[in-house]
What does this fold into?
Amino acid sequence: MSLITRAELLFFVSNSYTMNINIQTLDFTAKDDLNEFIKEKVARLGRYLDNIISYEITLRIDKSATNDNKISDIRLVIPGNDLLASSRAETFEKATAQAVDALEKQIEKRKSKDSY
It folds into this structure.
């Protein structure tokens, strides 16, 4: 049976609405520093989209022999189709930053598609 720790983070943004950031960790407990780092990174995406309902982040450790066994999965819940990104790196910070970068590219692609 796997241990799931859930940190529900709510914060207010300048547009006076509340954004849900849900961080799940599988089989370990994340430190507050990691939770804060993730919250800051994903909040950056709010600059590109103003209709984000929530962020769903899952952190897990792959049981591989390599050093890049930290995985960060991020799901942006938005009206229409949600955006998903996953990344694997040596640290959760790197994996999260890479997943956020991938989501930024998806958002840019979606906006350019919608502008036609």
About this structure: The radius of gyration is 15 Å.
